[in-house]
Amino acid sequence: MATQGEQQQQLRSLSGETLTWNGDVIAAAKAATGKEGTYNECLIALLQWILGSTNTNLNGLYAEFRNRTGANYPFVGADGTQLNGAPPFSIFSRNTNATFVNDEGLIEEVGADVLRVQYNPVTLEQLGWLIEGQRADLITYNAANTDWSKVRCTVTENYAPDLFGGNTAQKIVEDTSSSTSHYYQSKSFAHTSGQKYCYWGVFEADDRSKVWIDFSDTIFGSASTCYFDLITGAVTSQFSGIDAAGVILMGNNRYLCWATDTATSSGTAGAVFGLAVTDGVSGYTGNGTAGVIFYGAQAEIGTFPSSLIVTGATSVIRDADELKIPLSSVAGWQDGVSFSARYKGISAPGIGSSPQYLATIDDGTTSNVIAVYRGADNYIYLNVVDGGVTQATVQGPQVIGSHTVDVEITVIEDDISMSVSVDDGAAVTYGPDTSGTIPTGLTDLVIGNRSDMARAWFGVVSSYQIKALP
C-alpha cells in the first residue's frame, strides 16, 4: 500500500493522468482506505485520506485540493463499462420506455428516465450507455401470431425461449405448396413517398436456414428483396432496389437481419419475412414441417435498425435519450481555457443524412460548440464553433458501420487537433487546425448527442473524460 506521502506526490495525477476512469478511483480508494462503495463515496474517501481532511463535501474537497496543490481539478470522467447506472453529476431523461441488452444477454424493457447500460449479447461484456434518438416501431403487435398474415405457412407458438427470457418464440412453418413463396406478413402501416424505411427481424435457423425481407413493390418498386443466411450470419443477396442491409449477431445463434429501402409512392403495406431454400429465390416446394424460429420484427423510419420497441395495438414511439453533465459540476472548469477530452463509443450500424454526435460541449445552442461526431459521409470530425462561426473542422478516419471509436481531442487556442483509434487499433493524429478560437459561455457536456437532441449517436458511449491543460 502506498504511503500518504507517496500518494501526495500523485496529487496532480488525480486531475486525470493516473486515476482516469471510475474503476481506477474505486480501486485506489479500496487500496488506500479499505473503502468500498459508489464512485462518489470512493472519491470522497480517497481525497479525504490523501488530504488528511474530514470534509465530507466533494466540492469542498476539490477546493482543498486546489488550495493544497495549486492545481485545478477540472476533471470529469466516467467509464460506462464499470457503472451500472448514470455517471457522476449527470442529468438524464427520456420520456418513454425503452429496451436494451442486459447482463444475461436478454432484452429488457425499462421505464422512462432510466439510463440503459448495454451489454454484448454474445460475450455479455458491459459496453456502456446506450444513447439513441427518437424512433417509432410502425408494426403493431410486433411478435403476435394472431395479428400477422400467414401466406402458405403456419406458426407454432411457444416453440423456443424468446429474447426476453420467456418461452414465446415462434416457428414459421412452410406448408406443402409447390414452386411458390412461403412468408409471414405484418399488419399494413402507412408509408410516405421519399421516406427511407428499415425493416428488421430476429431469426434462428431450424429446419430451414435462409430468410428474406421484402418491401412492397407498389410502394418501393421492384427488386426490393434481400436474402440472409442464418448459418453464416451474412447478407447473401441484396437486390438492386435495396439501399442497405446487414446482420447483427444476437447470441445463441440468433441473428437480427435488417434492410432499408426508399419509398417511391405513398400507401399502406405490411413488412414481409419469408423462407427460402436457395439464395435469391423465394419460390420452392415446402414439406409441411420445416421452417425457422422467429423472435419478432420492427419497421422504423430510418436507414439502420435501433433498439427493439415493444408494440401492441398501436405504433409506439421511443423518445430520445438525453444525458448531460453540467460543467458547473466540474470543479475547476474554466471557461475558454485549453483542455483535452477523450470519448469512447461504439457507432451505429448505419447513418442517414444527419451526423451522429459522440459528445458535445456547448452552451445549449449550436452557436458555441465543441463537438466530436460521425458525419453523413461516415468520417469522424472534430468541430469547433464560436459565436456561430466555425473555428476549426478537423477530419479523421472514415468509419462505416458499427465499430469501436476512441477519440482524444486537444483544444488549445490556434492549435486544435484530435487522435482517433478504431477497434482498439493504433491511434492516428489529425490536425492541428492553427486558426481556431475557443468558444466561451459553454455550459454542458452532452453525451451521445448535442443540446437540441437532433444529432443522436444511436450507439453506445463507453467512457468520457475532460481535463484542463497547463
From TrEMBL:
Top-level taxon: Bacteria
Protein name: Uncharacterized protein
